[in-house]
Amino acid sequence: MSKPVNVYSASEVSKTLDEALPSIFERLNYTESFKLTDTKLYIGYSIVVVSAVSFLLDKQLGHRNVIPYQQGLVAAYIILSSLFWYFKKYVEKSITYVGNEKKTDDKISICTRYEECEPKYFVTFVKNDEESSKLEVVLETTKVFNEAGYLQTDLLYNWFSEQLKIISLKKKE
């Protein structure tokens, strides 16, 4: 059993539910995809490399000799930083989990958010990046946490399983 959380803390409840998603979807025959994380890391590491090259050039060649190179490096830094911001804001958005079904290779994206002062966990399912297979539902957190603050993973698993069935039925219509 997991450790108890303060069910009156929106951030703790949200974090606990978000952290449970990979294991829940593993039980539902999904494998987690790390493409978004990998892309974010590549962009971030590229920014670090540009900064390191800038520092090393300045250190080795001296300030006056490196100005033309620094202008290019600053431009690259601005472009990469803007790309990173765009990626976080518009591509990654609030996606908490991305996975692929093992048998059919269907992709599922899960976006989550938690409203302050309400025990409601808002979950958006998007299957295969299709707007027609988008499902927005609300999970009452009181249904998956007991009075002591323990997450009832079987209840959460059943809830997600039901939602995936609804998406499958919705897609067939």
TrEMBL record:
GO-annotated biological processes: negative regulation of post-translational protein targeting to membrane, translocation; protein targeting to ER; signal peptide processing
Stated role: Component of the signal peptidase complex (SPC) which catalyzes the cleavage of N-terminal signal sequences from nascent proteins as they are translocated into the lumen of the endoplasmic reticulum. Enhances the enzymatic activity of SPC and facilitates the interactions between different components of the translocation site.
Family indicated by similarity: Belongs to the SPCS2 family.
Subcellular location: Endoplasmic reticulum membrane
InterPro entries linked to this entry: Spc2/SPCS2
Molecular function GO terms recorded: peptidase activity
Major site of localization recorded for this protein: endoplasmic reticulum
Keywords carried by this UniProt record: Endoplasmic reticulum, Membrane, Transmembrane, Transmembrane helix
UniProt membrane topology term: Multi-pass membrane protein
GO cellular-component term (any): signal peptidase complex
Regions crossing the membrane: 41-57, 69-87
High-level lineage: Eukaryota, Fungi, Dikarya, Ascomycota, Saccharomycotina
Protein name: Signal peptidase complex subunit 2
